[in-house]
Amino acid sequence: MIQACGLRKNYGTTVALDGVDLHVREGEIYGVLGRSGAGKSTLLRCVNLLERPTAGTVRVAGQDLTALGDAELNRARQRIGMIHQHFALLSSRTVAGNVSFPLEAMGVPRAERERRVGELLELVGLGGRGKDRPHQLSGGQKQRVGIARALAGNPSVLLSDEATSALDPATTESVLGLLKRLNAELGLTILLITHEMNVVKSVCDSVAIMSGGRIEESGTIADLVRTPDSRLTREIFPLPEPAPAGSVTLTFTGDPGRPGASQPVVSDVVRKFDVDLSILGGSIEELSAGAVGRLRVALDGQERSAALAYLRDSGLIVEVAGEAA
Amino acid sequence: MTWEEIVPLLGPATLETAQMVGWSAVFTLLFGLPLGVALVAFDRDGLRPLLALRSGLGFVVNVGRSLPFIVLMIAIIPFTRLVVGTTIGTAAFVVPLTVGAVPFYARLVETALREVGADVVQAAQAMGASRTTIVRKVLLPEALPGLVAGLTVTVVALIGYSAMAGTLGGGGLGDLAVRYGYQRFETSLMIVTVVLLLIIVQLLQSLGDAVARRLSHK
Q: Which residues constitute the domain of residue A81?
């Protein structure tokens, strides 16, 4: 749905994007994670050409945006929704007026606009608030107005620029829930950038980790979690590094057909083999990919190698510190 | 002078001031607003960067702003004659008033438009709004309180400039104060004129403030 190839963006001598390739599939929620200054905001703004990349191409829904003239680009942008960290609502307009704005820009007739605005406000849970002014709303409500406005043109793609970073945790969760619902119900493809791992964990299907203007790692969350030494795995499940020699790190991948983190594999091992097991650290997360966890244990005793083999056979990823995986 | 002598002088003079200031305010709005929009839109980070044009406009505005009004007024006499066919009277004085106020108001418009958040403008661009739509439906409405406040300041300045109308036979309250109050030592008329101007300016400023506050939804 979104395909960016070889994106570069320079500001004078500063390189904001240093050759970025991005592929977002239709219907997925794709997160770009990185610290401020990593280039993720520039990347997002290159997707709808708010920033024109110094080099590279951007295709959205099969259309090469970098090749379009002004009028055509405006028409293409009407099919790409965008929401913003600080909402970017017009204070001179009511809530309904804000949602109506993109429809006016598209030349939709008044009666049609009014009908559509009503529907959109209903969709984001703000039915009946149309006459309010933006300053009368809470942050979460403002972002809902932003979302309604972004959906006005029936976009196939929604770009989210740190849309929850200015919100408190509970509000963040409800806005993320709304995005997830829109993704499921409307088949909306969402590209979001964030510096919060929590956002990635709770809604994203795929992720790219950015740093210094490059994508360091990308893929579906399910795949990355299955790769024990991926950056994502290390960041979601922080364990003391380096692992003490001989200690064992178990990864529960949450795949169907493999034991989830809630299954008693560990107690099985202790019961079946003559080993002592003590837990050094670990964490479990409920991701959109399923329950996933990492556990660091010390495993000693006569049947250690048999126990390790059993764990491997049960479908866990087993790493022993000081040995190749 | 007694009240009976002063009042018949004040009436027509006030009307002349109102006409001069009113018309030049209308023309100032008509020319100053687009000029202010142009100063913002053609700038480096504007909607349509056209740097050569922008620096040309900026230069003209600065020239207009740096000339003392009385000098400007005399310097553009040929232009005034070209526009209204005469260089004396109330109508003729509207021309230098407008020429003097347009650059002043354009700068105030520029400042007000720059107060509109870059994020709001970018959001409109991201929605595929054309440049004219952004100017008409984002920049101007969002800056409206500032535009009104700027116009109030400009009108008050115009009242100040209009006092020099007498130099070109323009009339008005300022002219009255100079001719009677200063040249004929009619202190009582001077005082009445000053108080009247004070009241007019206060009223206008309060009105402008109230409208600006009413329009602001922050």
A: 2-225
Q: Which residue of A has its CA nearest to B144?
A: A92
- Cis peptide preceding A242, ω within 30 of 0: yes
A147: pLDDT confidence band, cut at 50, 70 and 90?
very high
Rounded Cα distance between A249 and A316, Å, is 10
| Domain harbouring A186, CATH code | 3.40.50.300
Inform me whether the C-beta atom of residue A63 falls under 8 Å from chain B C-beta atoms. no
The DSSP bridge pattern shows strands A55-60 and A2-11 to be: antiparallel
Task: Calculate ∠ Cα A34-A22-B122, nearest 5°.
Answer: 70
Q: Which residues have C-beta within 8 Å of that of residue A51, sequence separation ≥ 6? A: A9, A42, A45
User: Using one digit for the tens of pLDDT, what is the confidence trace for A121-140?
Assistant: 999 999 989 999 999 999 99
Residues of chain B whose beta carbon is less than 8 angstroms from a beta carbon of chain A are 117, 119-120, 122-130, 133, 137-138, 141-142, 144, 215, 217-218
Question: Who among A75, A84, A135 is closest to B119 (CB)?
Answer: A84
Q: Parallel, antiparallel, or unpaired: how do β-strands A290-300 and A248-252 relate?
A: antiparallel
Helix/strand/coil (H/E/C) assignment for every residue in A286-299: EECCEEEEEEEEEE
Query: Which burial class, exposed, middle or buried, applies to B186 when counting CB atoms under 10 A from its CB (0-12, 13-18, 19+)?
Result: buried
Model pLDDT for residues A69-119, shown as the tens digit of each residue = 999 999 999 999 999 999 999 999 999 999 999 999 999 999 999 999 999
Residue with tokens 């126990």: A307
CB contact under 8 A, B128 and A77: yes
CA distance A2 to A9: 18
Residue B185 gets which letter from DSSP?
A: -
Please give the Cα distance from A250 to A135 (Å, whole number): 50
pLDDT tier at B164, thresholds 50, 70, 90: confident
Q: What is the pLDDT at residue A324? A: 54
A169 and A105 in a common domain = yes
Q: How far apart are CA B216 and CA A168, in angstroms?
A: 27
- Verify that A205 and A244 share a domain, yes or no: no
Residues A210 and A152 grouped into a single domain: yes
What residue spans of chain A are helical by DSSP H?
Answer: 40-47, 70-77, 95-106, 110-123, 139-150, 169-186, 197-203, 221-226, 231-236, 265-272, 304-313
Q: Is residue B4 part of a domain?
A: no
> What is the pTM for the complete model shown?
0.86
Distance CA(B93)–CA(B165), nearest Å, equals: 6
Q: What is the pLDDT of residues A251-262, one digit of tens each?
A: 887 776 666 666
Distance between start and end Cα atoms, chain A:
36
Of A195, A206, A207, A203, nearest to A174 by C-alpha is A203
